[in-house]
Amino acid sequence: MASLTLKINNKNYTVDADPKMPLLWVIRDIVGLTGTKYGCGIAQCGACTVHLDGVPMRSCSLPVSAVASKNITTIEGLSDDNSHPVQQAWITEQVPQCGYCQSGQIMAATALLKKTPLPTDKDIDTAMQGHICRCGTYPRIRKAIKTASTLMTQKASN
């Protein structure tokens, strides 16, 4: 066990954990933020996506010792009240069906829109590649990303 200080959603947490423990389990089981989901455990499905210094990463296979100096953002860190434009677009476009993969999808979309405010279909395909939705809501995800892009562009111009 090691004592590590993590900065998650702009708050510092000191945790005692095995340095090899996946970040996902520290976030969920030790810190108690359960919005980030476990899907596959091998970084293939995207349900566990968080941002490390703004870059989307799969937290299920990332040892906590590798992120102690990073700013970690989980789905809970986007907003306290679902007011983030990507969350609003997800609601407007009624994206979730079962909803399990959606926190990872939203985190990937948020990173995309920060980097590419007006993404093309190809940009969306590239950014969302490997984010698996068992319910097949991909057309609604694409539509929500475009809606979020519009919302963010409008917000920036005001």
UniProtKB/TrEMBL annotation:
User: Which residues belong to any copy of the 2Fe-2S ferredoxin-type domain?
Assistant: 2-78
Q: Is Metal-binding among the key words of this record?
A: yes
Q: List, in alphabetical order, the Gene Ontology terms for molecular function in this entry.
A: 2 iron, 2 sulfur cluster binding; metal ion binding; oxidoreductase activity
Keyword terms: 2Fe-2S, Iron, Iron-sulfur, Metal-binding, Oxidoreductase
Which protein is depicted?
(2Fe-2S)-binding protein
Q: Which organism is it from?
A: Dawidia cretensis
